[in-house]
Amino acid sequence: MAVPQNTSGEKMKETFLCLDVESSFFGLYEKLRSIVANDSRVYHSKNEFIRTNPHWVRDHIHEMKGYIYWQKEIRSFLDLILKNQNNKGFFYEIFAPFNSPIAGHLNFVGGDCRVLFPDLGYGLVRLEVEADIEYLIVEGVHRIWQATGDTKWLEKNLNHLEKGIKYCLSDPKRWDNKYKLMKRPRTIDTWDFINRPDTGINRRILPDDPMGIMHGDNSGLYAAMIQLSKMFEICGQERKSSFWKERAEELRGRANITLWNGKFYIHHLPLDNAFYGVDEREQLSLSNAYDINRGLPTHKMAVSILDEYQKLRDLLKGEYFAEWFSLYPPYPQFYTYSAGSYINGGIASFVAGELAHAAFQHGREEYAVDILKRIAKKINEDGTLYFLYTKDGKNQGGGPSGWGAASLIYALIEGLAGIDDQKCSYEKVKISPRWVSADEKYAHIKIVYGPSDNTLEYDFRWDKEAKIIYLKLYPGPKEVEWNILLPPNYSLEKVERNKKIIPFKLANVEKSKYTVIKNNVVPAKGEFLTLFLQETL
Questions:
Q1: Are 182 and 252 in contact (CB under 8 A)?
Q2: What pLDDT was estimated at residue 398?
Q3: Which CATH number, 2.60.40.1180, 3.40.109.10, 3.40.190.10, 3.10.350.10, labels domain 428-535?
Q4: 480: helix, strand or coil
Q5: Beta bridge partners of 490
Q6: How far is CA 454 from CA 82, 138, 424, in A?
Q7: Average pLDDT value over all residues in the chain
Q8: pLDDT band at 47, cuts 50/70/90?
Q9: At residue 9, does pLDDT exceed 50?
Q10: Of 72, 294, 320, 429, which residue is 20 to 30 A from 422 by alpha carbon distance?
Q11: Quick check: 18 and 3 in contact, CB under 8 A?
């Protein structure tokens, strides 16, 4: 199959997944890309240029899992947020032009949680109940660094990131001294409202608001501290790198002891006596999928979470079109939302993407492929992707569809295609092609970072009759580790690299078997791998 080309005849400098027309995923990436791109907004204010996806830091960073592969400008919004960091250490989250509908949020908080720029025509807002902004900013900066390779920009912003994480670990609004974990008002998972009559226009934290410890905040904080450690190491600050890694692992240990119910992470550990009509220890909430991808659970715990979702899929089949719940079981009523409506039990496309990504990483490839096939079928039926669905698969709205689409791009590129940038600019990569799990015979993958044009490109071909897997890696990476998923009931006779037999190891992830080829320095002309399969009993 030919590589897509532009009108000049040169190879396109953009990401694509070129698959057989019979593939269940043919054209899926292009549809998802269009949905994410549709959320892009550009604002001009005097000499400022600000691009967002669309208005909130949260949406902008979650959607970065998609637009990082084509968007040229990815810094301006975070630059604005970073330079306007509050003196206490927290970050604002909403960019609110005065003439836009989002401007109403400027009145949802007190003066200490907003900053206005009358001469520029906009304000910045921090909804006080939100606890996830500081760790998301760390994630966003890390992704921007990976895509641009700009270590000077990274180094300039490290103090801002560290100050934000220290705020999370110390401010009485955010930190619980008894459990030594991050806390928040009793919202639904990571959402921005509580069960209070005025919550629609009041997102402050009031003295009598019920509080709790939510697992997703602590997985986000853990991931941010690990990323902070890596970024300090990159910038040559070994002492700080070690400090943040140690703090991260201490937090992980406490969270996994305190918030685990034996099957998954509990929705809230209450810090008061408020009761909303359901046992929160048995509620499976959306951040469980994020927790896995952030590295909080052990492998065994991650598999347990994934298996809980599969049990729900099988148990509720016929009643619910999918098991990608925002919350299950939902509250009988939370604020104005009855059970199953909005984030109180709606079925979320972003949970589908996060679950698929997690399942690829933890030996549940069959489940990951099942999720992607079902969502691809749903997109084809509806002509688009929705943020939230009703139990029977109808559009429930409630947020940007690009958030869900980006999570599915994440699952396709890092999960199915298996591309893991272990530093930046694809200089050092781990590639884990998992195409056999989807019974794909051919794939040509080109992944390009939009801001820098740094590229990783490979071909995959599985010749079933000859019992051979071919892989071609194009020039670009300097160092690569291969983890190649083998078909079920097959092992390996030998592996050739550029027609020379090389050593390899086999590794099991649950029942899945991978061929591991480590620490390869990639020749300037790329490399060819040939895997000669042999059937096993």
A1: no
A2: 94
A3: 2.60.40.1180
A4: strand
A5: 535
A6: 25, 22, 9
A7: 95
A8: confident
A9: no
A10: 72
A11: yes
